[in-house]
Amino acid sequence: MFQTFDSHADSSQGTERVPLLRAELARRGIDGFLVPRADEHQGEYVAARSDRLKWLTGFTGSAGAAIVLSDRATIFVDGRYTLQVRDQTDAEIFGYESLIDTPPAKWIEANLKPGTRLGFDPWLHTIAETKALRKACEKAGGELVALDSNPIDAIWTDQPQAPTGAVAIQPVGFAGELAKDKIVRIGKAIREGGATHTVLTDPSSIAWLFNIRGADVEHTPLALAFAIVPAEGRPSLFIEQAKLGIEARAYLTQLAELHAPAALQAALRTLAGDGAKVGLDPQLAAEWLRGAIETAGGATIELPDPARLPRACKNEAELNGSRAAHKRDGVAVVRFLAWLDAQDPGTVDEISVASRLESARVKAGEDVQMPLRDISFDTISGSGPNGAVIHYRVTTKTNRKLGAGELYLVDSGGQYQDGTTDITRTVAIGRPTEAMRRHYTLVLKGLIAISALRFPAGTRGQDVDPFARRALWQAGLDFAHGTGHGVGSFLAVHEGPQRIARTGTQALLPGMILSNEPGYYRPGEYGIRLENLIVVEDAAQVEGGDIPMHGFETLTLAPFDRRLIDVALLEKAEIDWLDAYHARVAAELSDQLEDDVRAWLEASTAPLSK
């Protein structure tokens, strides 16, 4: 198994550990401290050593922050975690705020007392974030103080060691471009951006640039490292040498100068002394990097990570790999759904079902000698009221049976060497209510609206997002998360800069893979989410139209639950789309399925229009 179902949450952690932190802050002469869920790379995926927010508070979500002052503590989460955070943390210790509506900087400006010295770890906050925090502190009459070391590390006596997962080479057949050619291409972008060098801090960009993968964080094949890339010449890669076997070391030595991470500060000082103009992405690079360069007399300029957009726009080899991975994944999901449909209500639980799905992915990979390398995130396996917890993680403490008359929501994915998958399906256990069918169909209408959309060049994710919500809005409903996130190529299942959300400012470009996942959640009763992965297609002429339009190709292959579809709520074009999609699912998967599963799929994909 690539996941466990142990309970990692303990609301008493804050009760025990916040006083320890306050004592350490008092010893340092600091009145408060910011605790983000972040590491030195500012990524969503952090190693156990860097999960300080979880250690301090008990909250296990993938995004959040806390502010601990001498007399109060507040934790910030987004809409995915409003229920979860209250289950996992002590309300006697923490107040709760929205990470979106009242982020830490806004809260600080309104709540910090004059004269307060608020400490922060400059490794754990980006340049842009630090600027906003400093401005907020000053407006409140306080002071933002960069600390030389993290006070949580001083009190975390059993803190795990830094990870040393082995680095592997991603073959060019899957990557689609040699690393040496990527380095030249990125060097040109650095030069055009007005810099002589840039510091790559995002492990996904480093993995893409050098065509390597790693094993330093859960479910995402990243090697934690930094790179200094010049406009001309060889890059320098700062990575723990224990991660490099003979083959990986020999490969990387041909591309870059290899150094230990501890050598990064000296390298930055050398660049500063040589008059380099070092590009740093203010949204990704740690404030510590800016400080290290400028304190040494060097110059920094704002430069977006030059690997981010090329990484997001998949080439043909990466797209073909993703198509193959989704077909393989579709076989696994269909086998799983057919099995689940044959189980009597009340006979299986959230853990056994999630385990069965993971086993189905393993088998589907073995069938074609393309093994499942990992799952792409802990499976969200929620029945009944647990399905309403948007990022629910089943544990042995929360595990429940799939009961008659309930909905079951399963959000899962796989990591294969040729692609990363992510799919959500909601299915009826027994007979659904009319309210369930209505809500499901409204969500499905949103997914179809995105899938069938045509849009001109320059359209951003925030322009697309309302199409997923229109049917729900018309009914006075909505969902508290974005409609879609970017997805990597055997990399992170959540990848920027592309996203379909109110905050999605990046234009959607050909080759970008995104999720399409509207939902609806009724707390205490059920949750509904439907998700396919889609890829932006090249613009093409529309018959009778004036300008070329982009569209989406759907990658995911699995049926939707016909029992939950209220056909009366669908327009003819929506029925036509769904029938065509189901016909494609059957055509592409049937020849790889056993007879009984093939029969189930045939019934599940029968046209609605008949």
Structure description:
The chain has 610 residues and is α+β, with helices and mostly antiparallel strands. The protein folds into three domains: 12-155, Creatine Amidinohydrolase, Chain A, domain 1, CATH 3.40.350.10; 168-310, Creatine Amidinohydrolase, Chain A, domain 1; 313-604, Creatinase/methionine aminopeptidase superfamily (Creatine Amidinohydrolase), CATH 3.90.230.10. Helices cover 36% and strands 18% of the residues. It has 19 helices and 27 strands. A six-stranded mixed sheet has the order 4-3-2-1-5-6. Strands 12-11-10-8-13-14 form a six-stranded mixed sheet, with helices on both faces. A three-stranded antiparallel sheet has the order 15-18-19. Helix 11 (264-273) crosses helix 12, helix 14 (316-341) crosses helix 15 and helix 16 (434-451) packs antiparallel against helix 17. The longest helix has 26 residues, at 316-341. The two termini are 42 Å apart.
Write the layout of secondary structure elements.
Blueprint: H1 12-28, E1 32-36, H2 52-57, E2 65-69, E3 73-77, H3 82-88, E4 94-98, H4 104-111, E5 117-120, H5 127-139, E6 143-146, H6 151-155, E7 168-169, H7 172-175, H8 179-192, E8 197-200, H9 203-210, E9 212-213, E10 226-230, E11 236-238, H10 246-253, E12 257-259, H11 264-273, E13 277-280, H12 287-295, E14 299-302, H13 308-312, H14 316-341, H15 350-367, E15 374-375, E16 380-383, E17 406-412, E18 414-416, E19 419-420, E20 423-429, H16 434-451, H17 461-474, E21 484-486, E22 495-500, E23 513-516, E24 519-522, E25 526-529, E26 532-536, E27 552-554, H18 572-589, H19 595-604
Parallel strand pairs: 1-5, 3-4, 5-6, 8-13, 11-12, 13-14
Antiparallel strand pairs: 1-2, 2-3, 7-9, 8-10, 10-11, 15-18, 16-17, 17-20, 18-19, 21-22, 23-26, 24-25, 26-27
